[in-house]
From TrEMBL, chain A:
One matching Pfam family: BPD_transp_1
Gene (UniProt): pstC_1
Gene Ontology cellular-component terms listed: plasma membrane
Principal subcellular localization: membrane
Protein name per the record: Phosphate transport system permease protein
Subcellular location: Cell membrane
GO biological process: phosphate ion transport
UniProtKB/TrEMBL annotation, chain B:
UniProt xrefs under InterPro entries: MetI-like, MetI-like_sf
Localization of this protein: Cell membrane
Originating gene: pstA_1
Domain ABC transmembrane type-1: 105-420
Acetylation recorded as keyword: no
Transmembrane spans: 52-76, 105-130, 151-174, 283-302, 398-423
GO cellular component assignments: plasma membrane
Keyword Transmembrane: yes
CDD domains in the record: TM_PBP2
SUPFAM superfamilies the record matches: MetI-like
Protein name: Phosphate transport system permease protein PstA
Membrane topology: Multi-pass membrane protein
Pfam family, one: BPD_transp_1
Principal location class: membrane
Amino acid sequence: MSARQNTPLPVALQKRNFRSTAASEFRERCVVAFLAMCGLTTVLITVCIVGMLVSQSWNFFQSEHVSFGEFLTGTEWTALQSQELENAKFGIWPLLSGTLRVTVIAMIIALPLGLITAIYLSEFASYRVRSILKPTLEIIAGIPTVVLGFFAILVISPSLQWFTAGAFDTFNATSAGIAVGILCLPMVTSLSEDAMRAVPSALRDAAYGLGSTPFETAVKVVVPAALSGIISAFLLAFSRAIGETMVVALAAGTRATATLDPREQSQTMTGFIVEMIKSENEYGTVQYFSLYAVAITLFVITFGMTLLGQLIRRRFQESYQ
Amino acid sequence: MSDMPNAEERSGDARSQRKSKPADPLPSALVDRDQVQARSNAQKRKSFDRMFFWLCVAIASLSVVVLVVLLVSIGFQGQSRLTSDLINNSHSELEPAKSGMWPSIIGSLLVCGISGLVALPLGIGTAIFLEEFKPANKLLRTLHGFIQLNIANLAGVPSIVFGLLGLTVFVYMFNVFGQIQVNRPSDWELFGVNHYYQVLSLEPGQTILVPQQDQSQTTIKISEPIEGIDNDGNPFQIEIWDRASGPKPADRETRLKTVKKGAVGGSYSKRSWYYFRLPFGKSFLAAGLTLGLVILPVIIIATQESLRAVSPSLREASLGLGATQWQTTRNISLPAALPGILTGAILALGRAIGEAAPVLVVLGAAIAKNRGPENLMDSVVTMPVLIFNWAGRPQDVYQQLAAAAIIVLLVVLLALNSVAIYVRHKVQSR
C-alpha cells in the first residue's frame, strides 16, 4: 500500500492539460465557416459569370442597330469588317456554323479514335503497352493549345493542301478541326476507359463463358454497360471543342462564313472573341459589347452540354454491387 | 452470341419432350446442326476479332505517331533559333532575328505563381468542405449538392469566358471606378506609389526629383529654391543656377543638387512592387487572378479525388478516439491525401502556364515589353501569348521563333511535371 503511494503517477496522467471544449468547438465552427466561404466563392464565380454576361450583352441588345431576332437568325456577321455601325450586321449564324464545322470535324476524329483506344486500353492492352500509351496520352493532354494551333498551321494545313493539290485554303476548318480532335482525344480516352474499367469483370467472364470473342465482349457487353460514362465523356469533349480558342484563332481563319464547306475559312465564336480583343476596339462601342453576346451564346451551349452530361451520368449510370 | 440462350432453351425443351415421349425423334434443329457452318461462323468471328485487335493497335499507336510528328516537326522548325539570344533578349520588331523571350518566361512564372496563390487555398478549402464536412441536415445537404454541381459546371466553362470575366471584373471593375487612361494616374491609387517631377540637374544625364503635390498639374517650372529628394529618399534644398550669376559650379556634388533657373520637369511616378490601384487595368495581377479562376475547378476536382481515396477506416479511427471533424481532417485525411493534392496542384499550374486565351483577353495581344513585371499593376507578357503572336505572323523568322519558344515552353512544363512526380514520390515514400 505504502509502496504504491510512493510510485509517481504516469507522465501521461501527471501532465494532463485539459483544453476548454468550448474554445475548440468555437474554433471548429470558425474552420467550418471558412471552408463554407471557400465553397460559396465558387458559387459566386458562377453568379459573376452569368451576371457579367447578361448585363454586358444587355448593353449590346439595347443598341438601336441591333435586334434580338436578327442576332438569332441573321446569316451575316460583319462586326469587325464594317467601320460604320449602320452597315454592321450582327447575325450569329456564320460564327455558329464555323464553330460547328470545326467541332464536328474534331468529333469525327476524337470520338471513334478515343473510344477504340479506350477499348484497347481497358480490354486488350498488356501492362507494357499501357505503360507506353498512358503517358503518351497524358503528354498530349498536357500540351498547351497554342502549341497545337501552331502544329495545325505548320504541319496539318500544308499536308492537307499537298494531298488535295491545293483545294484547301491556307486557313481552313479542317486543319483546325483535326488539331482540336487531337486535343480532345486524350480526354475521351481516359474518361471512357475509366467508365469501362468500372464494369465488373463478372460480366466479361459471363460473356467469355458463353463463347464470345474479345471483340464481342467489348462491343456488346462492356461498351453498353459503360454507356452512360462514355456518353458523358463524349459530351464533355464536345463542349471542350466548342470552347476551344487558341487552335481556331490560329488555324481556322478570320472570315465568318455561313457555309458547310470544310475547306473554307471559318471564324468560330471563340475565334471572333480573340480577333475582337486583338483589334483593340474601344470599350463601350456596340462592336465591343457584341463580344459578350457571342460569349453568352458560347456559355449557354457549353453549360447545356455539361448539364446534359451530368444528367445522363446520374440518371443512366448502372451501379454494380 | 444472341442466339445462344435460345439454343439452350430449345435443348431443354427437347429433353423434357424426350422424357414424356421417348419414341419421338430429336427436333430437327438439333439433329441437322450444320457443323461446317458453325465452324466457319466461329472462324469468321475469330478472324473478325483478330482484325479488330489490330485495328485497335493501329489506332492506339496513332496517338504515339501524332505526338512524335508534333515534337519532331516543331523541333525541326525551331532548332535554328535555339540560341542564347532566345533566352536573353526580348521581342524586337526591328531585329526579329535577335528576338527572345526572357520577359515572357519571367512573366509566365510570376503570373502562374499568383494564380496558384489564389486558387490553391480556395480550391483545397472547397474540396475539404465538400468531402470532409458532409452534413446530415437536409438543407445543408442541398447546398453541398448545389456546390458540387456548380463546380462540375465551372470545369466545363470555356477558359475564354473566364478571360472575359477577368476583363470585366478585374480590368474594368464594371467601370465603377471610371476608365483607365494612358499617362494619367488613376484616382484610386491606394498605396505603393509616389509621384514626382523629374528635373534635369546641371550634371549631364542626372535628374532631381521633386515631390508632386497637385496631381492634375503634369509639369513644373522651377524658378526658386524648393525641396527635392535624393536617391536615398532624403530631402534636400535644390539650388538654382542662373546664367547671369556666373559660371556653372565646378564641384560635382553641388552640380547634382543644382538646376538651371526656369527648368521644366515632367511628372514621374516611383512605384514599389506592391503598388495597388483600382481598377487593376491590364495588369499582372488581373492576369494572375483570372488564371486562378481558370484552374480553380481543376484543383478542387483533383483534391476531392485524392481525399475520396483516403480509407474511411482511418477517419473512423480518429473520430472514434474523440477527435473533432477538423482535427481528423488536419491530422489524418490531409496528410494521407497530400501526394494526390500536390500532383493535382502542379498539373493545374502547368495548365496555367500553357493557357493563352484568358491572358490574351485580359491583357490584349501586345508583346512589346523588355522586362518582367515590376509591380502588381505592371503589364506582362506570357509565353503562350508570345507564341500566339509569333505564330500568327507570316514571316519565316517568326515561325521559327515560335517553334523555338514552344520548345522552351515544353521544357518548362516538363520540368514542372518532373517536380510533380518527384514530390509525389518523396511524400509517398515517407
